Amino acid sequence: MKKSIGAKTLAFPTPVWIVGTYDKEENPNVMTVAWGGICCSKPKSINISLRKATYSYGNIVERKAFTISIPSEKHVKEADYFGIATGKKVDKFAATGLTPVKSDLVDAPYVKEFPLILECKLIHTIEVGLHTQFIGEIIDVKADESVLGEKGLPDIEKVRPILFGPEIRTYHGIGKYLGQAFSIGKEIS
Amino acid sequence: MKKSIGAKTLAFPTPVWIVGTYDKEENPNVMTVAWGGICCSKPKSINISLRKATYSYGNIVERKAFTISIPSEKHVKEADYFGIATGKKVDKFAATGLTPVKSDLVDAPYVKEFPLILECKLIHTIEVGLHTQFIGEIIDVKADESVLGEKGLPDIEKVRPILFGPEIRTYHGIGKYLGQAFSIGKEIS
After folding, report:
1. Considering only alpha carbons, which residue of chain A is nearest residue B81?
2. CB < 8 Å to A73, chain B
3. From the DSSP assignment, how many helices (H) and strands (E) are in chain A?
4. Which residues of A touch B167 (CB under 8 A)?
5. Whole-model pTM above 0.95?
């Protein structure tokens, strides 16, 4: 028997992604999002949701581009800080000592110290309510050579991404390997 | 120095969620999605992306409702199977021995054996390309009492959700607790 716990934005896992943007004065800004996901394979696209009140919202509307930098668990404090502070008041790169790098493909900066980044051009804007959903086409994915594994793809156990639990407000690392997708289920049928 | 690995739908982590729907004959169906995320806090909403070719696509268009059942890692094989088989040809519940339960709030079934479920009503349909994005308002969240922790909320370490690595096609469990959100970042500034 399941117990109702009410209408909540509660699903596991949600990601911890750092959205990079430039403001009108070319100042780089970053903010943390957990409301987001991949949303299309062709065009290759990813969605993130931001409140209009955020500094990044205006930057994306203006520049029509953003990056997603995926932090490793060793930077969980910085990732949390990026979601607490506002770019309206502080330079989050200066505060953390992390380094903005200008993308050569889209009009947005990414975080040099984070191992995996996506460079995105805005292709859709959907007004859902308190949050606006931005869908970006993934123009390129870049990774530190140190996290690459088989076939030149990022090894998730080297990237060590962070996941967020909404409502319980906790961060977790990734755990044990459970199996190969589109494969282990073939035993059934 | 980061290495370009090309435009790919590659971001970590992505979820492993089971979408539950009814077809025109009231047959319950389930499919696995990794393209999805929470997208708005008011209305409380979640998005999933499906190809038009899937059986579930037509069901959602018709019924304007779906559920999301979040499997524990012990059901990783069933979760994988739900993404391999098609409801056009097989009864995935019968094949796995899992149990469909009719939601009392929305016109869709969920998976009894999975510990955390969301009941959703369709509020937006966005044509992105190969995938259509469905945004559902979260009407209720239900959880097995056995996974509830502090404050009556689901404990992620009891739910033990699965995460998916796109491109590398691997499933992983959740790992160690890294800290409290909106808290550990306060040390910086």
Report:
1. A185
2. 178
3. 4, 13
4. 153-154
5. yes
Asked whether the beta carbons of residue B80 and residue A183 sit closer than 8 angstroms, the reply is yes
Tell me the sheet residues that pair with B18: B32, B69
- Give percent above pLDDT 90 in chain A: 98
Identify the pLDDT of residue B1. Answer: 82
Query: Do A80 and B183 count as a contact with CB atoms less than 8 A apart?
Result: yes
pLDDT above 90: residue B137: yes
Q: What are phi and psi of B173, to 5 degrees?
A: -85, -175
B189 has a pLDDT exceeding 90: no
Give the nearest chain B residue to A1 (CA atoms). Answer: B144
**Least CA distance to B83: which residue of chain A?**
A182
Alpha helix (H) residue ranges in chain A: 55-63, 76-84, 92-96, 156-159
Q: Hunting for tokens 């909540």 — which residue is that? A: A8
Pick among B16, B18, B39 to test the A interface (most A CBs inside 10 A) = B39
Tokens 């930098």 found at: A69
pLDDT tens profile A36-79: 999 999 999 999 999 999 999 999 999 999 999 999 999 999 99
Q: What is the pLDDT of residue A177?
A: 98
Residue B133: both structure tokens together: 């994005």
Q: Is the dihedral of CA A176, B71, B94, B86 positive or negative?
A: negative
Nearest to A68 by CA among A40, A103, A104: A103
What are the residues facing A120 on neighbouring strands? A66, A138
Contact: B142, A3; criterion CB under 8 Å? yes
B55-79 pLDDT tens trace? 999 999 999 999 999 999 999 999 9
Q: Kindly list the residues from chain B whose CB atom is less than 8 angstroms away from the CB atom of residue A94.
A: none
The span from the CA of A14 to the CA of B182, in Å, is 15
Reply yes or no on whether the pLDDT at A189 is more than 90: no
Q: For residues B143 and A3, what is the distance between their CA atoms, to the nearest angstrom?
A: 5
